[in-house]
Amino acid sequence: MNRFVLVSLCAILSMQLTSVSAQGPDQPNFVIIFADDLGYGDLGCYGNPTIRTPNLDRMAAEGMRFTQFYSASSVCTPSRAALLTGRLPIRNGMCSDKRRVLFPNSGGGIPASEVTLAESLQEEGYATGCFGKWHLGHLPQFLPTNNGFDTYFGIPYSNDMDRLNDAAPKGRGAFLEPKIEYWNVPIIQDLEVVERPADQTTITRRYTEHAVDFIKKNKEQPFFVYLPHSLPHIPLFRGKEFENHSARGLYGDVIEEIDWSVGQVLKTLQDEGLAENTCVFFTSDNGPWLIFNEHGGTAGLLKDGKGCTWEGGMREPGIAWWPGKIPAGQVSLELASTMDLYTTCITLAGGKIPDDRIVDGLDISPVLFGEGKSPRETIYYYRGTELMAVRHREWKAHYYTQGAYGADARKRENHDVPLLYNLHHDPSERFNLNKKHPEVLAKIEKLVKTHREQLKAPASQLEIPL
Amino acid sequence: MNRFVLVSLCAILSMQLTSVSAQGPDQPNFVIIFADDLGYGDLGCYGNPTIRTPNLDRMAAEGMRFTQFYSASSVCTPSRAALLTGRLPIRNGMCSDKRRVLFPNSGGGIPASEVTLAESLQEEGYATGCFGKWHLGHLPQFLPTNNGFDTYFGIPYSNDMDRLNDAAPKGRGAFLEPKIEYWNVPIIQDLEVVERPADQTTITRRYTEHAVDFIKKNKEQPFFVYLPHSLPHIPLFRGKEFENHSARGLYGDVIEEIDWSVGQVLKTLQDEGLAENTCVFFTSDNGPWLIFNEHGGTAGLLKDGKGCTWEGGMREPGIAWWPGKIPAGQVSLELASTMDLYTTCITLAGGKIPDDRIVDGLDISPVLFGEGKSPRETIYYYRGTELMAVRHREWKAHYYTQGAYGADARKRENHDVPLLYNLHHDPSERFNLNKKHPEVLAKIEKLVKTHREQLKAPASQLEIPL
């Protein structure tokens, strides 16, 4: 063997070795697309009559569509904290009874002691990028690049915060006829403000372009893309190409642009030959914001929306796509939660779930691969620090019920005998069966007792002033 | 050419000619599958979380799913009369303000002067079969075989009529824990009662078997199969194979058996090589019967159900399937009605629409074939003989609103300024815009004026005693 052949051979071997270790079948890529305030009934494949979502419908047809998939809270900050830590917000201080989410005048954020999904995957050699709305603290120590992400581009909190009271009309008018200049929300690149106010008409497109670029740049190593769109949170904005795109009006335009974004991500994965090694999951942080008339979405047949613990507040579309791994065209009735994405992704990446704390996420890969049932049997519905309701299998017991927003939110009912619904038979929570099934209530009461005994709730991050 | 060759050649030619004339591309077969009280939100592909409908979902994926498809009435008899005559029930006496449907003690039925879809197709050389619930009169002159069908197997009216008060518990108990022996509904074969009481646990299977046999027997000529299932009308029954089949409970079992039935029909058409020449349409007569708790279905995000003129009462799933003719995987937002099936089928069969009367049905084949928009722009919502609401394009004006059943049904509101909803933006009819759009109300008022001027309402068939 001459020297040239030997060198060539070594080069080829080393390329292959690099390729195997960096992008081996044991380390799939992950893309989590997280909409903001999108309801259970807002997609074509979940029954919406006038919003067209061909890309999400195709994602469902080629993958798995969950019908009983939950976010961990009915509002933004706690829901996002749970997704990225695999833990109920009550365990990490990311909820409060006084302020439901973080605001521009908040001084708190995601505690350093939490191990985020991005940190775990970074540890396993993943490239990690976050493109979109963060809302886990806007001070530098709380931002994505200090919490496991290599890079970040997006807004630090909701798109209706930093309202400019001189520029915007008073009351709801600013929301119902929105203009960019009514708000002063910044766009942050890594740790720097690069634009203020954010041009929200181009924001969905720009998040998408950043995500696509990141995938292309990092295709030789495993990667995690977190793409938390800041829409359809109100105020609604969409790009020029999506003006009057939807029969549903402005709200539909916004959803159809997000659907386009999903199509771009899937196309990139397919064009780059990455589809068979990438798990994509689409869901939303909480239900639709119903108080804003046609600017809010719909939870379909589910009761109520964002801000409350009826099903419409926390049950979400959930679509998983991974050609060749997730069987095509499946509708799954299995119970699952955003927190399960944490545990499932880390497990599939070969990482370790933190064992010095309670992690609520469970590994749902048997469901995804069509190999078994979900390990999840229980959903805890918190409002702030209060456990309002508990679902165990098909049964949901409401200890308290309370309206979502405005005057309704002050109407709180305490149910000495909890309301009880069979969500399989009665998804709209219409028929209380608590007199008929005391044994179910007893079983749920036991679960609650154990849950409370194990619970250590730290001080709230949401109440810390700037 | 010797005599043998000549005879053989003639035989072959004549077979081909027969085959072309009997089953030519100009005369497609039609199968209309009509469920009873199935709601807009009751199928998987319309967003139901716990009812599995893989066959209907496949039918939609291979065909066209309508999101704005309407029955012509919110109750049974008038809805069926409209489907089979292409005319609003107000035009043919098949509605009334005193009795909303026909009963076993009714003496009326479908007038002989009406030209049914079956009669028109029979005229064009079609074999015609009806397998299921009729409900257009149970006296001989009103039965299917005297109104255009070659053969009939099914029940003459609803499955909750002919209640045996000695056998059944009083009140709602009979409906909520149904047994076959509580009702004395007959099964009629052509004109003869062949079974009484009908064994409703096997009824969906038997309708299906009759339809499948009919297709196989008539495959050499054009055929029309009308398969109006008598379920999921309450009381609910299903076959042994479907007991505990569905996570949704008894109601889900019933829908999943109907889904199985659809699968059998499609499979038969494919096995017999008839799929490319057969148009199959699935829909329902009216919305879900909500007063019977978990025994009733759901209209999803639409308001209310059976018996009223809110959207849940009359908007229905509508799925069209015709491989090679109807493009696959389409979701159509076009407006259409069961009455349009009448006109479309007769037109495609080469028949003539009666021109001595007003026919409300329109030819929607351009929509089906992906070639154009729907000619339909208006939906009239009648309750009995009263025009309650009118939809024009995306706008719906309510002149009167009234609850569906029970005490609610006695609460009627007259709207001097009609309520106005944009159904594209607001499918759940939540945001009245009548103050904002007087010009739309004026336009609709004009349509109503013309409609009323052209209207000749004959005496009601539903009020004729036995």
UniProtKB/TrEMBL annotation, chains A, B:
It comes from the Bacteria. Residues 28-350 form the Sulfatase N-terminal domain. One of its GO terms (molecular function) is metal ion binding. Its EC number is 3.1.6.1. It holds the Pfam family Sulfatase_C. This is Arylsulfatase. SUPFAM superfamilies: Alkaline phosphatase-like. Its cofactor is Ca(2+). Residues 1-22 form the signal peptide. The lineage of its organism: Bacteria, Pseudomonadati, Planctomycetota, Planctomycetia, Planctomycetales. Belongs to the sulfatase family. Keywords: Calcium, Glycoprotein, Hydrolase, Metal-binding, Signal.
